[in-house]
């Protein structure tokens, strides 16, 4: 049944937001991306009250200035985001923490409660060149687990943020097998999951099944859909993630998979407050394209009850 205002449940544990990613923003500074002030204006205009910081340096990093910009637009921050390569062992810790610390400090200053951690890509998302093997060794899995637990502990103790790890296409935490292995290898009291519905579907996973099976580990959601026809061609030809996005593999809801109403209902049944941040990968995109999509997506999610 399609979601509408008369049949949709009230999803009162779900707090909907959006992110710079939905405006085609992947990098701190890139001439093809919309300026940060335009993003803030338009995300507010589209009806969202929560955002993520996006790549560190895209939004102003001076806390008082950013706070003023957000307040003017009635926006709040749910999380910051970092990329890490903790499977490479203790040698990468200092460099990792230097970046994590600056992002976590800004997120904390903005009143956020989460830090989204994305594993490193095993192949370049532009050239498709393999940067390292796509499968981790047993030792690398151990380093990933222990490094993530250390990161989560330090981030919680120093900044009061909850680490949520984001399974992502073309990383080592992607498929159901890899996600389950990661969850089973890490401490549930320290490490939660940012379930990105699009990436998990992109990699063949069943979002509702994961929520129902590992509900206590779901700490955050990214809402995204995949075009199944484009995805089939991407998989068949082993297209890397960046070019796949340029082909339009991530599409606006409700045009793709997974169906979001069942995902949202499963999340609501967990009985905990969850952010559900819309992310439609569109890098690069025409500057006038994101706002109409954002408006339609917010209207669709309201029809789902969120």
**How is the main sheet built?**
8 strands, parallel
Radius of gyration: 18 Å
**Helix and strand sequence:** EHEHEHEHEHEHHEEHHEHEH
Question: What's the helix count?
Answer: 11
CATH architecture: Alpha-Beta Barrel
Poorly predicted tracts of residues = none
Mean pLDDT: 96
Distance between the termini: 16 Å
Instruction: Give the amount of beta strand, in percent.
Output: 15-25%
Question: Portion of residues in helices?
Answer: 25-40%
Give the structural class: alpha/beta
Number of strands: 10
With strands numbered from the N-terminus, the spatial order across the biggest sheet is 1-10-7-6-5-4-3-2
Quick gist of this model?
Residues 40-302 form the Xylose isomerase-like TIM barrel domain. Keywords: Isomerase. By secondary structure, the protein is an alpha/beta fold.
Question: What can you tell me about this protein's structure?
Answer:
The protein is of the alpha/beta class. The protein has one domain (14-304): Alpha-Beta Barrel (TIM Barrel). The protein has helices spanning 36-45, 63-72, 93-109, 138-159, 176-185, 197-202, 207-213, 228-236, 241-246, 260-268, 290-304, and strands at 14-18, 50-52, 76-84, 114-119, 162-165, 192-196, 218-223, 225-226, 250-251, 274-278. The chain has an 8-stranded parallel sheet. Strands 8-9 form a two-stranded antiparallel sheet. Strand 2 (50-52), helix 2 (63-72) and strand 3 form a beta-alpha-beta unit. Helix 3 (93-109) packs parallel to helix 4 (138-159) and helix 7 (207-213) runs parallel beside helix 10 (260-268). The chain is globular. The model has no long low-confidence stretch (mean pLDDT 96).
């Amino acid at each position: 049944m399609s979601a509408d205002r008369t049949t949709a449940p009230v999803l009162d544990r779900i707090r909907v937001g959006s992110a710079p990613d939905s405006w085609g923003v992947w990098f701190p500074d890139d001439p093809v991306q919309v300026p940060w002030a335009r993003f803030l204006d338009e995300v507010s205009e589209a009806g969202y009250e929560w955002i993520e910081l996006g790549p560190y340096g895209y939004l102003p990093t001076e806390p008082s200035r950013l706070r003023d910009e957000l307040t003017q637009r009635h926006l709040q921050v749910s999380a910051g985001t970092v990329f890490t390569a903790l499977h490479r062992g203790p040698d990468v810790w200092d460099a990792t923490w230097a970046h994590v610390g600056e992002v976590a400090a800004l997120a904390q200053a903005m009143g956020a409660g989460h830090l989204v951690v994305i594993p490193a890509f095993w192949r370049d998302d532009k050239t498709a060149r393999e940067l390292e093997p796509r499968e981790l060794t047993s030792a690398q899995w151990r380093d990933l687990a222990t490094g993530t637990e250390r990161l989560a502990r330090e981030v919680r103790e120093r900044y009061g943020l909850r680490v949520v790890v984001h399974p992502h296409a073309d990383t080592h935490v992607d498929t159901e097998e890899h996600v389950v292995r990661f969850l089973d290898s890490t401490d549930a009291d320290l490490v939660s999951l940012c379930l990105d519905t699009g990436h998990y579907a992109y990699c063949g996973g069943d979002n509702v099944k994961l929520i129902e099976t590992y509900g206590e580990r779901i700490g955050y959601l990214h809402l995204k859909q995949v075009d199944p026809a484009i995805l089939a061609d991407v998989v068949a030809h082993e297209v890397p993630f960046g070019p796949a996005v340029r082909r339009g593999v991530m599409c606006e809801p409700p045009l793709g998979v997974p169906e979001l109403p069942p995902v949202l209902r499963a999340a609501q049944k967990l009985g905990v407050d969850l952010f559900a941040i819309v992310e439609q990968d569109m890098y690069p995109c025409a500057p006038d394209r994101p706002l109409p999509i954002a408006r339609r997506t917010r209207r669709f999610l309201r029809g789902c009850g969120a």
